[in-house]
Every structure is written in C-alpha cells, then in structure tokens.
Design goal:
mainly alpha, 68% helix, 0% strand
Length: 80
C-alpha cells in the first residue's frame, strides 16, 4: 500500500485521501485518523471505501475522473 506515497506530494486533494488510507493501513482507527487529519468520519470512510472498491483510481476526486480522458496512454504508463 505504500505505493500511494507518490500522491502526497503531487495532488493536494488526492494526497489527503491517500494519507487517510495509509493511516488506516497502518492500523489507525477512523476516530484516530479524524484527530490526525481533522476530517469528518464519514469523509474518511468514504475515501477508504472508494479505495477498497476502485483501487488507486478511487482516491481521485470526481473532478479528476471527469478529466481522465485527457490523460494519454503514455502519461498513464509513466504514472504507473
């Protein structure tokens, strides 16, 4: 799961989502993550659930998903 660290420096919003997922992976509970990130429990659960359902793409905000068609195959290969 540590593959998510690249997002912490590249996209602030997705970085927040990745941080919550990484903290959960490290064994923190949702209330503990709330205290660390100052995010609402439901928000934390939403991003963890999206990651579990959709993988790395699940932590991108919906606005990033809408613009995903602009990413070429070459850019996607470089990201992966």
């Amino acid at each position: 799961m540590n593959d998510l660290h690249w997002l912490l420096d590249n996209d602030a919003e997705s970085g927040y989502h990745a941080r919550m997922i990484l903290l959960r992976d490290e064994g923190y509970t949702v209330p503990e993550i709330r205290k660390i990130t100052n995010r609402h429990d439901n928000n934390i659960r939403k991003w963890i659930h999206r990651f579990n359902e959709d993988g790395i793409g699940g932590i991108l905000s919906r606005k990033h998903v809408r613009n995903a068609h602009k990413i070429t195959d070459d850019i996607e290969r470089r990201i992966v």
